Amino acid sequence: MKVAILGTRGIPAKYGGFETFAEELAVRLARQGIDVTVYCKADNNQQPGTYKGVHLVYIPSFHLGPLTTIWFDLLCLWHARNKFDIVYMLGYGASIVCFIPRLWGNRVWLNMDGIEWARSKWGTFAKLWFKCMETVAMYTPNQLIADADGIKEHLQSRHKHMPPCSVIPYGAYVSEVSPPVDLLREWKLYAKAYYLVVCRLEPENSVSEVIEGFIASGSSYPLVIVGDHTTRTPYVECLLRLKDDRIRFIGTVYDTLKLQALRSHSLAYFHGHTAGGTNPSLLEALGCGNMVIAHDNRFNREVAGDIALYFTGSHDIPGIIKKIELYSSHEQEGIADKAKRRVQSKYHWDDITAKYMRLIADEPNVSIPDYTGGKK
């Protein structure tokens, strides 16, 4: 059984959620005896042929403006057209060309990710393109994969025709031991004495609402914002005009241990995402045992359940902060334990892999080893 994973910049993961997902899934499938290949963007760095048992294929990426990603995905699909049993594309932006491997008898899976056309960062043409590609995605693959029930329900509400759609979320790790508090010294922070935001600084992540609500709360703690504030988009400019001594923009943090320390030792984590399914950042926060203050939408509620406190706008945030700052240390520990148990029970990477193994086993004419050494 040969499986190819496309639609990312490659592994080992250095960039974002899709790359992390591709690495975690590919390595685990390889351990289960699946022949897995991940397609990567070629660059001038060293390009190893394998990574933890996973084959790596490098495809040149040409800068073509807004067509760059679509062209890269097309090249990957063409290269993979007759080499694999299953071609798994992450993201539907190039769904119009996902039929290519099917012409050679390959099975094509398509991960629908979030509702891309709802993201405010895209212009009118890009939003129209993603809407069209969502519709096209109902016809080109053999199998859809949604990362949340909310995504599947969204697709069912918009489209009369759909291929089979399985719901398989992303996974996450549970932090058993918090990183050293000393790692916070770089930003002059203290454990349980700051609030945290980690996200792209874009309107659909509710950053302005979080800042405005936090300022209105009168909290004496700082609000630490991890995200690229040096790229001065109009939205970032608006955020930087919300001046307050307690608001600290610290830029991007790529060091995994430092980012985990920031999460683990925060008093609470703000999650303002509105346009996604199972968001990796929210899972990571829960896995660190964070108290979560989340935007109130079906995607965040599906992931965090009754563990998080929810806001619909900036006006809700002062009351939530007041409530959190009255929690005892015992109550904080109880919430942290509950958050970690939720990740362990619903989003464990091994359980996610098992769901993919079952989906592979359900494909026609497939025989694979199961977890006990038998055959499915």
UniProtKB/TrEMBL annotation:
Every DUF1972 domain range: 2-172
Keywords from the UniProt entry: Transferase
For this UniProt entry, the molecular function terms from Gene Ontology, in alphabetical order, are:
glycosyltransferase activity
Q: Which InterPro entries match?
A: DUF1972 (IPR015393), Glyco_trans_1 (IPR001296)
Q: Identify the residues that the record assigns to the Glycosyl transferase family domain, covering every copy.
A: 192-325
In its keyword annotation, does this UniProt entry include Transferase? Answer: yes
Query: Sorted alphabetically, which SUPFAM superfamilies does this protein's record hold?
Result: UDP-Glycosyltransferase/glycogen phosphorylase (SSF53756)
Superkingdom as given in the UniProt entry: Bacteria
Its protein name is Glycosyltransferase
